[in-house]
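User: Could you go from structure to sequence for me? I need the amino acid at each position, not a summary. C-alpha cells:
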C-alpha cells in the first residue's frame, strides 16, 4: 500500500473534491490550497482526533484558540524578527529564488549555476493594522501558533489553577512566506498547526521529552500511519536551534521522500523567559532575548520548593496539512479486482507505446519533461497488468496534455481501469470523510428509496456517523466511488429489505459491504448502529 507518486494523490484530490489549488480561476496563488467537501471532513476529523487524544483524554492539558494577529512585540521577543530567516539564492539566469540549503549549487528550474550569494529572507508576512498606514502600524501574520500559547501562559495558569506539569494545546492557521512552496500541501504558505507547549519543572524536561516522542509516534499510528513509514530523527548538536536542548524530528515517508511531519523540541525556559519582565531575577538557564516591554513575570510558584520557577517547555508541533498528506498517502492503493483479458491489455500497451513515441518526437517539451514521462511510461509498461491504473497519473504529469495521443491512451486505459481495478483509500474510520454510504438497489422503487433514505437519516442523526445517500449509478460503480474516498462501509437496500424478495426471513435486513475486504454481510436494520459502531472501533 501507499501512494507511489504525488501525482496520484494530486489527481485523486482534485477529481474527488479533497483539495484544489487556491484561487485557480485567477491563475492560482502559489503555495495555497483550498480544501473541498471531502478534504474539509478529513482535515476536521484529523484535528478532532488530535484534540480528543491530547486535550479531552488527558488530565494535564488545556486548550486555547489565540488570535492570529498579535502585537508585533511578540515577534521581536520570540526572536522571529531577528532569526526567522532562511538563506536564499537567486538564479541569475531564470530569476527564480531558492532556499540555499535545499539545492546543490544548481538552479532546479533551468540548471544554471549562476546563482547569487545566499542572503537572509524573513519568512513572516507583514500586514498593516488600522486605517492609517504609518511606519509603526503593522504586525505579522503568525508564522507559528506557539507564541499565542506563551503569551497566554499566565492567563491559563491563573484561570485554571493548574500545577506543573501541564500543557496548553492549540490548533490554528500559520503563515510563512516560503521561498519555494512545493510538493503539493507539504510546503505551503498558509497552513495549520497542531501545537502543544508542555510545561514541566526544570530537571524533569528530558524524561518528558522522551515520553512525548513516544506518545506522538503512537498517536500518528492511531490515525493510520504505519510505524515503518515513521522515523524519529534526533537532531545533531550542530543542527539544533540556539534555544533548543534537544529536538526530535518525526519524519514520514512521503511520496517525495522522507521528510518532517512533526518536530518535538525541548525549548528549555527560553520562551517564557524571553517574554518575561525582570529577567535578571528569574534564574533563567537559557539565553533569553532581553525584554523591555513585557508587563508580566511568566513564572510558576512551586508550592513544594516554595519558590517561583520558570517552567521548561516541551513542544510537540505538527502540521495538519502534512498530516492529511501522510494519511492520504498511507491509505492510497490501486488494486486489481479481477484480471483484465489479454487483448484489452494489449490494446492499452499499444496506445502507451504510441504515446511514448510521440513524447520522444515532441518539439514543445523540454528534455527533462520528456525524460520524466518516458521513465514513468516505461515503468508502467514493464508491468502493465499491475501498473495499469498508473496511466491516469502519467497523463496528469507535466507536459502530457500537450501530446495528441494522450487522448487515445486515456480512451483505451480508463475503461479497463474502471472495469478491473479500483482505487481505494484504506483510511481509519475515525478520519474517513464519510463513514457510511446508503444505496437503493433500484432507484425507481419508491419503498426501497424511502427505506434507504430513512436509514441514512437515522444513522446520521442518532449514531452521528457522517452518512450519505447515493443513487446516481449502478451499485458496483457506487461501491468503487466510495472505495476511492475511503468510506469504510456501504449499505444496500434491496427487495428483501422491504419484504418483496425471495427470502421472507431477510425482511428488514440490508447488505453491508466492507471497503477493505469487499466482503458482504446481511445485517438487521435494527442492529445497524451497534454493528457499525463495533466494526469501526
Ligand atoms: P521545515 O524544515 O520543513 O521548513 P520547520 O522545521 O521549519 O519545517 P517547524 O517550525 O518545526 O517546521 O513547524 C512545525 C510543523 O509545522 C512542521 O513539522 C510541519 O509539519 C509544519 N509546517 C511548517 N512549515 C510548513 C509549511 N510551509 N507548510 C506546511 N506545513 C508546515
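Assistant: Here is the amino acid at each position, in order:
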Amino acid at each position: 500500500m501507499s501512494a507511489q507518486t504525488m501525482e496520484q494523490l494530486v489527481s485523486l484530490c482534485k477529481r474527488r473534491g479533497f483539495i484544489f489549488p487556491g484561487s485557480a480561476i485567477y491563475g492560482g496563488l502559489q503555495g495555497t490550497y483550498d480544501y473541498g467537501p471531502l478534504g474539509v471532513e478529513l482535515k476536521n476529523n484529523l484535528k478532532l482526533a488530535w484534540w480528543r487524544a491530547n486535550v479531552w483524554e488527558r488530565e494535564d492539558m488545556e486548550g486555547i484558540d489565540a488570535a492570529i494577529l498579535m502585537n508585533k512585540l511578540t515577534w521581536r521577543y520570540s526572536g522571529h524578527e531577528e532569526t526567522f530567516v532562511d538563506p536564499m539564492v537567486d538564479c541569475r539566469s531564470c530569476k527564480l529564488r531558492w532556499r540555499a540549503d535545499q539545492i546543490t549549487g544548481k538552479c532546479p528550474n533551468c540548471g544554471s549555476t549562476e546563482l547569487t550569494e545566499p542572503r537572509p529572507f524573513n519568512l513572516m508576512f507583514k500586514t498593516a493594522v488600522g486605517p492609517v498606514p504609518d511606519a509603526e502600524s503593522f504586525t505579522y501574520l503568525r508564522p507559528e501558533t506557539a507564541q499565542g500559547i506563551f503569551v497566554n501562559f499566565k492567563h491559563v495558569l491563573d484561570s485554571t489553577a493548574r500545577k506543573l506539569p501541564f500543557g496548553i494545546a492549540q490548533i490554528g492557521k500559520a503563515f510563512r512566506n516560503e521561498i519555494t512552496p512545493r510538493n503539493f500541501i507539504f510546503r505551503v504558505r498558509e497552513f495549520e498547526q497542531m501545537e502543544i507547549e508542555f510545561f514541566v519543572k526544570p530537571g524533569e524536561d528530558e524524561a518528558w521529552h522522551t515520553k512525548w516522542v513516544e506518545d506522538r509516534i503512537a498517536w500518528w499510528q492511531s490515525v493510520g500511519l504505519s510505524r515503518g513509514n515513521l522515523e524519529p530523527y534526533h537532531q545533531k548538536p550542530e543542527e539544533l536551534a540556539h534555544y533548543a536542548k534537544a529536538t526530535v524530528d518525526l519524519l514520514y515517508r512521503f511520496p517525495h521522500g522522507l521528510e518532517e511531519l512533526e518536530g518535538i523540541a525541548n525549548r528549555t525556559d527560553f520562551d517564557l523567559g524571553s517574554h518575561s519582565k525582570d529577567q535578571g531575577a528569574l534564574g533563567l538557564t537559557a539565553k533569553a532575548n532581553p525584554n523591555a516591554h513585557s508587563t508580566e513575570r511568566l513564572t510558576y510558584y512551586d508550592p513544594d520548593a516554595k519558590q517561583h520557577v520558570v517552567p521548561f517547555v516541551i513542544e510537540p508541533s505538527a502540521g495538519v496539512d502534512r498530516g492529511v498528506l501522510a494519511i492520504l498517502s498511507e491509505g492510497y492503493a490501486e488494486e486489481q479486482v479481477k484480471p483484465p483479458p489479454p487483448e484489452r491489455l494489449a490494446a492499452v500497451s499499444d496506445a502507451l507505446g504510441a504515446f511514448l513515441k510521440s513524447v520522444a518526437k515532441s518539439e514543445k517539451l523540454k528534455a527533462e519533461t520528456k525524460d520524466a514521462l518516458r521513465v514513468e511510461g516505461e515503468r508502467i509498461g514493464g508491468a502493465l497488468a499491475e501498473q495499469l491504473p498508473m496511466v491516469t497519473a502519467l497523463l496528469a504529469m507535466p507536459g502530457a496534455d500537450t501530446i495528441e495521443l494522450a487522448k487515445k491512451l486515456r480512451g483505451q486505459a480508463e475503461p479497463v481501469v474502471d472495469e478491473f481495478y479500483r482505487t481505494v483509500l484504506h483510511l481509519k474510520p475515525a478520519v474517513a470523510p464519510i463513514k457510511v454510504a446508503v444505496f437503493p438497489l433500484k432507484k425507481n422503487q419508491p419503498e426501497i428509496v424511502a427505506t434507504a433514505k430513512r436509514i441514512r437519516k437515522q444513522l446520521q442523526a442518532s449514531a452521528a456517523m457522517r452518512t450519505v445517500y447515493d443513487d446516481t449509478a449502478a451499485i458496483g460503480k457506487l461501491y468503487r466511488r466510495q472505495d476511492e474516498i475511503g468510506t469504510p462501509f456501504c449499505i444496500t437496500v434491496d427487495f428483501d429489505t422491504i419484504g418483496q424478495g425471495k427470502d421472507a426471513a431477510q425482511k428488514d435486513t440490508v447488505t453491508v459491504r466492507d471497503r477493505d475486504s469487499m466482503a458482504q454481510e446481511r445485517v438487521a436494520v435494527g442492529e445497524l448502529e451497534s454493528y457499525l459502531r463495533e466494526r469501526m472501533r
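One structural detail worth keeping in mind: The mean pLDDT is 95.
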